[in-house]
Amino acid sequence: MSELSKRRLLSLAGWTTLAATAALVGCGKKEEAAPAPVAAAPEPASAASAAPPKPEPLKIAFAYVGPVGDGGWTFAHDNGRKAVEKEFGDKVVTSFVEKVPEAADAERVFRDMVGQGNKLIFGTTFGYMEPMLKVAADAKDVKFEHATGYKQAENMRTYDSRTYEGAYMAGVIAGAMTKSNTLGVVGSIPIPEVIRNINSFTMGAQSVNPKIKTKVVWVNEWFNPPKETEAAQSLLNGGADVLFQNTDSSAVLQTAEKAGKYAFGWDSDMTAYAPKAHLASAIINWGPYYIKATQDALDGKWTGGTASWWGVKEGTIDIVSVNEVVPAEIKGKVDTIKAGLKDGSFSIWKGPIVGQDGKEVLKKDEIADDKFLGGIKFYVKGVEGKVPGGK
Fold this sequence. Notes:
Rossmann fold, 2 domains, 6-stranded parallel β-sheet, 14 strands, Peripla_BP_I, ABC-Purine-Binding, signal, Bmp family protein
């Protein structure tokens, strides 16, 4: 028999055996010759189960009183919002509404923010205090942060920056640069925050030039470039040759440049708007606080009913882009003041300090506490005119 025939017979025998095996298995009999494949060992539970879903990003909203492009207050807050995005990436989603008036319409905006699923909401101006309180009472699962206010709730807290520190350092420069010994301030709204800044600016100037007098024109708005321009021109016409502001646009600085005088940037670096007139900018860096508040919310450590007031020490207040025309001696004095504010060795509001009426408001070596600073409604000696609404 040939080899090919033998292979065919063996093949036929193999198929016969497989057929018989199949018949036995089909009858429910155990087949020992061909054991069933061994099942794979089960995977550990952690490997077999799907990865946990990624947490939803924290939705954060900001309400701004002015336009983002104001170059000052609102621009500074929006830089803080961008700092949050850079720090936390896809852990957060931020949004903002600009030009929200300090009126009943603000309540509607805050309710819309809640309805859109925002769980952390920042209101960035004093006039939002009452509207935020109302909405916070109806949205207990949302965290509210109010800038420059003084009322808190279980789910609402306040934060502020010590802008008077920047105002004082600007005053030191102004006192050295004036030739007329008359400074001008364009004031926004006569609340303690703004009055405190006017006084601090004046005291800074008097620390290097005791002859200083300060004139004030109020515009009763935070952002109104035409009114700010008119007020600035009025001050220049009244003999002021260095201007300061507590308003949000660059109009005061630009008005000074057209007149060949000096002025300061406020809240943000305004050098580019009027480089010849610009002596320095007293800026606010909201980034550190916004990042901390966001981290608190993400970590479940956010608590309401509290107040924060940050300054040079925390990296929130600074004076930047000092003009090269400012004498080196004055630059050095500003640097020393800044260092003292940072380490706590220097206090701006330290007695003796005398009010406009000649009465002592702080005794010698007495240092004002935050309660005192938060309630200032008077002018210090050297500021002309009356505080609107004051006695």
